[in-house]
Specification:
4 copies of one chain form a homotetramer. Chain A is an alpha/beta fold and 202 residues long. Chain A is 30% helix and 23% strand. Chains in contact: A-B, A-C, A-D, B-C, B-D, C-D. Chains C and D meet through helix 2 and strand 6 of C and helix 2 and strand 6 of D.
Chain lengths: 202, 202, 202, 202
């Protein structure tokens, strides 16, 4: 079990809690740093687990998870071409060695992957229910699915799925505001609320 | 740079985002899991840094930081006898090998410690200003102080100190609510808001 | 159109925004003052309207609405005996002259009432869907139903009903914390979040 | 004590809780409807009181207060020319008959006004401390000052003033998000947090 830090660029960055502006991303679509780390905590990652990151976007979840999974595997699944460009560059830049990029749409592309211990759903491209059904077939009892919802529709649909499928569910509502470090006055600016839904298969 | 997982008890726990109920603590005084991980992110820990955890309480920040600092050092400073009992047991239980327990009151006990790269202030025992002054003398430029405030008084005093001392300041307000996994209905229960203040020495 | 203030007790109280501690109530079940006034605003009351207050509890919504409806009518519907005792006393104390107390369970007791312009649902006793269906049959186009949800279940069910029935829906999430005026330090204490759902019949 | 509704335009509007889009205003600077009504509640207005509305902006607080003060007086104080244009038009449109427009800067223009029972400070033009000192000299014991802060600086300064002057202080933090009624999905959009500070002169 060895973790090397041969990449100097990576060394100058925090081991955890990478600032948002260090990721290349489609403007304004990235999960905020504070939301990202609470999401990672809810995934309860253990060192040798397999994580599916569905709708990986800029890859910030995959990249931070990679650091927490020195003996694990991460599959970053993304279908959007613009996102894929940023995702590839971020994986290279952060030297995310255990992350495998999967180009394509969930749930179709999930068949080829090894069974997950943990699944994060950051985007579903309108196929949320099918993705949840497919994930459920592959997830062992005790496995976790974590999803970030910014709409009432996604929150409701996910909760309905988990209830029907007999999952144990926790919903965490995050209302976060922050002041900017670079202004003369400290005005609180709000992020839009995010609901982090965690379902544990029973 | 080697990280071993010989402790089986530790292996069954997440690498990051340890559930609150895994820590022994004085009832209801512990930093909540969601607040803890955002705090850790704000500390921008790098693998070989030195962290002072002032008012360590149950040690949850020290223990999670230890995992993120495989080559670093953590000093957990606590003066309360009841907390010290839980802290000692938690450090043992989580096999936090790079954490040194410092029994005593800040700022007095800080003299004997090596200079910090990062400082977390979880409690100040009424000596906030003196602690900040003492920390400032030991912190290098670019170093970070992170503090969790639950009162307007602490928020104001910390902000005043940082402004006077020329620090760059960010305040993150966390308003978090969650449903409990073990009930038939999902009622949102709020945590009290926490203000995470980060000061960077200029 | 005349509004008299012959009641001295009432005169010493605010015209609007009555402090929580002025109402007798079953402990801790009352809508908080800040939530109450946002709820009243969402009801868009006009001076001669008819309001149904279903699950009136302590009567705080009915009593404040009464002041805003000098030519209107308010029906305060409550079935719980303990609540009814407090409700009666509060109506008397605040001299709420246009409020009619309706003892019984919704939706059954709604038949006898005149059609509403506005309906507030503060409690449904497990009959939410039936109440919404019954209210819908009596409400004119443009009429409003406002509901306060503290559980994800109620939020979801109400939203589902409104979507199915073709209502225009707004959800306002209130996350409120406050310091107590009577302490030496100002600690922020959170209320549990409340979702104020407003449905307009199309 | 008579309140007439001869103005038809006014009649079609709610007695309380006027929607934001009914006020003409400088873009995006208006107090949001939910914040406005909690502010009005905190002012504890009684029917014959005198209210100073310092930095009246679009006049939304003055206009809603006018309805709650049928025998009272409201002084809407504003110095910004663009705001004054909207303010005048809003007062006319809502038939706010007991509102007197005061053109000028606080604290200078306050000398000419009758003593207030209640003071709302919506803007201070950089003269917050002087305004608070001047208001304090005119306010009777038991009188209330309410202020909406969106920056940590204003929150801190106001709290410091009230503490020094021996006022009893309550701070309410409002974190509000809402879905828009006119979209196919219901995405929660956050307002920036507002701190409503109420000081009671002892």
């Amino acid at each position: 079990l060895i973790r090397e830090y041969e990449d100097e660029e990576r060394q100058s960055l925090p081991a955890f809690g990478i600032p948002d502006d260090q990721f290349l991303s489609v403007k304004k679509t990235m999960t905020r740093e504070e939301v990202r780390v609470v999401t990672l905590a809810k995934l309860r990652l253990r060192h040798d687990m397999c994580l599916w990151d569905i709708g990986a976007g800029s890859g910030s979840i995959s990249i931070e998870a990679d650091y927490l999974l020195p003996q694990g595997r991460v599959f970053a699944i993304e279908r959007n071409d613009e996102s894929l460009g940023f995702l590839r560059e971020n994986l290279r830049r952060f030297n995310a060695r255990n992350v495998t990029l999967v180009t394509g749409s969930a749930p179709d592309c999930l068949d080829a992957l090894p069974d997950p211990d943990r699944v994060f759903i950051g985007g579903s491209g309108g196929h949320l229910w099918e993705i949840l059904e497919q994930v459920d077939q592959r997830l062992a009892i005790g496995g976790l699915i974590v999803l970030n919802a910014v709409t009432l529709d996604t929150l409701t649909a996910t909760n309905d799925y988990f209830d029907n499928a007999g999952y144990q569910v926790e919903v965490v509502a995050l209302n976060i505001a922050r002041t900017r470090p670079d202004t003369n006055y400290k005005m609180f600016e709000a992020y839009n609320p995010v609901y982090i839904i965690t379902g544990m298969k029973q």
